[in-house]
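Incident log, entry 3
Record: Spermine oxidase isoform X1 (585 residues)
Problem: checksum mismatch between cached and fresh output.
Input:
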Amino acid sequence: MQSCESSGDSADDPLSCGLRRRGQPRVVVIGAGLAGLAAAKALLEQGFTDVTVLEASSRIGGRVQSVKLGHATFELGATWIHGSHGNPIYHLAEANGLLEETTDGERSVGRISLYSKNGVACYLTNHGCRIPKDVVEEFSDLYNEVYNLTQEFFRHDKPVNAESKNSVGVFTREEVRNRIRDDPDDPEATKRLKLAMIQQYLKVESCESSSHSMDEVSLSAFGEWTEIPGAHHVIPSGFMRVVELLAEGIPTHVIQMGKPVRCIHWDQASARPRGPEIEPRGEGDHNQDTGEGGQGGEEPRGGRSDEDERWPVVVECEDCEMIPADHVIVTVSLGVLKRQYTTFFRPSLPTEKVAAIHRLGIGTTDKIFLEFEEPFWGPECNSLQFVWEDEAESRTLTYPPELWYRKICGFDVLYPPERYGHVLSGWICGEEALVMEKCDDEAVAEICTEMLRQFTGNPNIPKPRRILRSAWGSNPYFRGSYSYTQVGSSGADVEKLAKPLPYTESSKMAHGSSTKQQPGHLLSSKCPEQSLDPNRGSIKPMQVLFSGEATHRKYYSTTHGALLSGQREAARLIEMYRDLFQQGT
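Fresh output:
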C-alpha cells in the first residue's frame, strides 16, 4: 500500500491518506469555452485536483472570439455583456477594470443591442430612399407593443390560438400587419412602407435569437428567456479578456488543446463486457504537470491505476487516446449534439434527452465587418437598416441560395471611430448565413458594396479595404451560434438536456439548485476514508453532466448563461462529494 507522506497535513488525517491511496475523483471537461472554464475553475477552487479540460480547437473561448486587427479588437462571437445587475460576466469585467474605457455610447439600454446608443438608425429602402424618421418611430412603437405581447403567453400562461401556429414570427407579422391596415390615418404609401418594415424587424429579431426565422421560435415559451436588468456593455479590449480571466486560475497542464473527442463511453462499470479496453497512461500522461503554469509540489495524478479497476466513464479522443474518468462534463454546443449525438455517446442517450435535442433549436448568426478608408455615412448615423419594399406582403424569411444577401438586415456603425476606424458590422442569420460562409471574401465584399450603393442611393461608395467575417455554422466544433426554444419545445426540454446521466435518485442536487458554496477546500475536510468512494453500489451517479448556454432555462443564448451552467455542474459534483464526506462524520 502506498504510504502517506507529509505535505503539511496531519499524518493521521484519514482524508489525506485516503486521497493519496485511492486517488481523487477524476473529472474530464469537454470544451474550453465559458461553461467549461467556469466548471474547471470552480472544481479546482474547491480542491479537486484531477481535472482535465479537452478542447478540440487550437484556442480557448468557444463562441467568444476576439480578433485584433491593428489597434482595434473585433468580436466574431459574443459582443455584449447583456445586463449588469447580478450578471457574473459584468461583475468579473468590472472588478478587473475591463469597462474603464467603455464610453457612455457603448452602454446601451435598448432591447436590441447596438454598438452605440448615440445617433439614429437610418432605415433605407432598396430604391435608395430614406424612410422618414416619424414613420420609423411610429412603426417601432407599434412593433414593440406587439413584442411585449409575445412575452405574455408564457409569463401569464395565456393560451395560444391556432392561427399563430405557436410561432413568434407568425403571431408578430399578422398582429402588426392587421394594426397597420386598420390605421385610418396613414396613407396607403406609408402603410406599404410599414408593412415592408415588418420583415426587416423580424430579420433583426432572428439574428438576435439566432434562428433561421422567428417563425421557428416558440410563442408559448418565448417569454421564459429572462433579461438581466441594466445596460448592455461592450468590452473595448475584447470579450476574450473575460475568458482569459477565467483561465488564469487554471494550471496550464489542465487544458489540452487540439483534443477533439470521438465518443463518451459511460456506464462502463455496470456493464462489464461493454466499452473499450483502457490503455494505461504512464509516462506520457497528458495531465502531468510540465512545470509551465502548474503548482509546485502537486501530487502526481491518480493514486489508483487505470488498469486495476473499472472506471465508470471512458472518453475516447480522435487521436485514439482513451481517458478514464469518474465524471465528464459535456459543454459542446447544441449544434454539435444535434449532429453527433448518435455516435458521441455509448450507450445511446435516453429517449427523452434525444427528444429534447431534436426539439430545441440552434441557428447561425454571422457578422460581416467591412472597413472603409473614409465614412460615407453621416456622423449622426449609428446603423444602416435595409428595407425591401417588395417584401410588404411577404410571409417568409427564406430566400433561394442566389439571393442569400437579402437576409442581411443591415449594418451597424462601430463606435467610437477613434478606436475602430471606419467600420460597419453587418448581420445575417439562418440558412442564408450558411450560404454566405461558402462564398469567398471577395464575393461577399462585392455583394455588400452593391447593397450599400443600392440602399443609400450612392453609386460611388468604394469597396471596403478589408473584410472580416464569422463562420459559426460551418465550424464543425460549433455548428451554430446559440440556442432558442423552437416551436414544439419549452423550458422543460432545456431541463431534460441538462439532466446528468445516468438518471438516478442518488444525486441529491437537482437541476437549478443553488451554486453557493461553503468557504474552504472541500477536499481538505477531514472525514473517514470509506466515505471517499462516490461510486458505492451498482449505479455510478453523475457520470455525464451537461452544461453550456443551451442548458440554462432562463439565460440560454447568453455568455452569463454559459458561465452559470458550468458553475452549476461543478456544484453538483462539489455537493455530491461533500455529502459523501459528511456521511462518515
